[in-house]
Amino acid sequence: MIKLEHMSKMYGDFPAVIDVSVEIQKGEIVGFLGPNGAGKTTTMRVLTGFAPPTEGTASIAGYDVVAHSLEARRHTGYLPETVPLYLDMTVTDYLKFMGHLRGMDDRWIERRLPEVIDRVKLDYYKNTHIQKLSKGYRQRVGIAQAILHEPEVLILDEPTIGIDPVQVVETRGLISELAGDHTLILSSHILPEVSAICKRVLVIHEGRIVADDEPRNLSNKLQHTERVQLAVRGAEARDVIGALRSMPFVVDVRNDSSTDGRRITSEGALPFIVDAKPGNRAVEALAKTVVGRGWGLVNLHPLPMTLEEIFLQLTTEEDVK
Amino acid sequence: MRTSLTNIRYIALKEIRTYFSSPMAYVVAAAFLAITGFFFVASVSDAFSEASIRGFAAGAVFFMIFLSPALTMRLLSEEQKLGTLELLMTSPLREIEIVLGKFFAAFAMLAIMIAGTLYYVLVLFLFGVPDLGPVLTGYLGLMLYGSATLAVGLMASAVTPNQLVALVLGAGVLTAFTVIDFVSQRVSGIAAQVIDGFQLGSSFSTSDTSNFGVAEGGHFADFARGIISPGDIAYYISLTVVFLFLAVMLLEMRRWR
Which residue has better confidence, B53 or B234? Predict the structure, then answer.
């Protein structure tokens, strides 16, 4: 449903997102987790067609976001971080206007609008000027415009930022309800929020995806891993993965499909990334295993940036009960 | 897939509604009618003055340098400031549909204001014997001149999220196009003619400013005299197209920053 292939986005000389490849299936609920400035918003802007990628491709429902931008946008509902509202319009007028721009005809809007207003519980305020609504209610209007045209893909950028705790709980409940009808991406810098809503979490740090897992595995990994990159020659990928996974302190092994991975390999070698529990001299043990099997060890080094560092930058606790 | 005309219409209608719900449009309309009314009265109140709209038209042409950017300054600046531009640009809309929708809304407002001046024509017909030709061409000229000035204003609004900056920039560009004859007077031959060809409206520098009815120079003068020249029409339409195109380019560039 959503596909990013070696996607990079530069702002001038600054790389906001570097070589990201992700595939998200229909119906998945995916969280982008990362500290502020990690590249979450930029990735979302690429997917929504607001900012085209500098390198690589992105597609929504099979439509490339650059080549078939209008089609891709038609399948997407988007709530930007700063909820964009016309303050001088009433809730109903605003939603009708947005519906028209999304290509809905009057009959469709007539049918859909009451459903959406009911869903986000704005019935009492439907003829109120948006100006007069509190932040939490404005957030609901923002969510309403995103789901109005029944998009297959829903992209919510920090949907609970800046609203009061009670409304945070309500908004999360609403998002969880919506999840059934859409392929959903939401971004957050709050670990428990992502864990509560999402079935899959991508941890983004300094423009790269540094972890991609289920929330419960992630919490363990985030706190207790160090990461090693290695390249092996003369072996099948699944043999290497099998051999390394059987080592007691290894948490995860996977192919490294990034450009960085290709860079460290010479001809015929395969790049891997290994997550290991710390304090086990992982680099030495991995070297011994690879060499012991008779494979060629082309490259082996610990990655300087550990998940633990990122974890420290995330908001891991909250006062919302 | 729906035609882009539908999208243009939805954006235009929304903007027209916003115009009527904010005090800005009323203030601008009142100022426009007051100032053009003054020019009109000044030009016909002499005992021997001619029954024509040339005085009013000269005033309108002058005042639109500020009025048009004031009408358009909000249109794209506010979208940038509120972040709603992100909403428009992630909706299945083309940039040109956004720009044209906003342009037509501003043009409709201007047309309504200009329609308010038909009162002056009524006065002329009641108390004098005006020549109908120059009145009709004068109004045609005002619409064309208005569309060119609105396009410049809209382009300025695409440049910045700050409405005041958009106003000053728009009025600045229009002023530059108007007083360009100060340059042409100081050069000679072909160069002077080429520069004169770009003059938007009269800068009053070549006319007797004590008589508001006579404003020479620029592409508006012939319309005021009752002459429809293809060159003048082409000039205003080209200016409109070029500046609307610049506005579209500015929006598209935002994606690639």
Answer: B234
- Do A52 and A124 lie in a common domain? yes
As given in the structure block, the two tokens for residue A9 are: 């986005």
Higher pLDDT, A30 or A306: A30
Task: Say yes or no for a CB contact (<8 Å) between A101 and B10.
Answer: yes
Phi, psi of A186 (to 5 degrees): -135, 150
Q: Distance between CA atoms of B82 and A87, rounded to whole angstroms?
A: 9
| Interchain pair A49, B256: CB under 8 A | no
- Do the Cβ atoms of A73 and B10 come within 8 Å? no
- Decide if A193 contacts A38 (C-beta within 8 A): no
Q: What's the pLDDT band for B220 if we cut at 50, 70, 90?
A: confident
Nearest Cα residue to A206 out of A23, A65, A15: A15
Domain that holds residue A18: 2-216
Contact yes or no for B86 and A85 at CB 8 A: no
Instruction: Enter the ipTM.
Output: 0.86
Report chain A's mean pLDDT, rounded to a whole number: 86
Instruction: Please tell me the distance in Å from B87's CA to the nearest CA on chain A.
Output: 7
- B interface toward A at CB cutoff 8 Å? 1-2, 6-7, 10-11, 14, 17-18, 21-22, 82-94, 255-257
Which residues from chain A sit within 8 angstroms of residue B94, using beta carbons?
Answer: 70
Q: How many domains does chain B have?
A: 1
- Which pair of structure tokens corresponds to residue A224? 């207790």
Distances, alpha carbon A258 to alpha carbons A8, A40, A262, in Å: 11, 18, 7
Report d(CA A98, CA B92) in Å as an integer.
Answer: 11
Half-sphere exposure of B14 (CA within 13 A, CB side): 26
pLDDT at A31: 92
The string of DSSP letters for A126-185 reads TTSBGGGS-HHHHHHHHHHHHHTT--SEEEEESTTTTS-HHHHHHHHHHHHHHHTTSEEE
B92 vs A73, A83, A88: nearest CB: A73
Q: Which residues contact A11 (CB under 8 A, 6 or more apart)?
A: A42, B257
Q: What are phi and psi for residue B125, nearest 5 degrees?
A: -70, -30
Contacts of A102 in chain B (CB under 8 A): 91-92
A179 with A96, same domain? Answer: yes
Instruction: State the pLDDT confidence band at A313, using cuts at 50, 70 and 90.
Output: low
Is residue A312 situated within a structural domain?
no
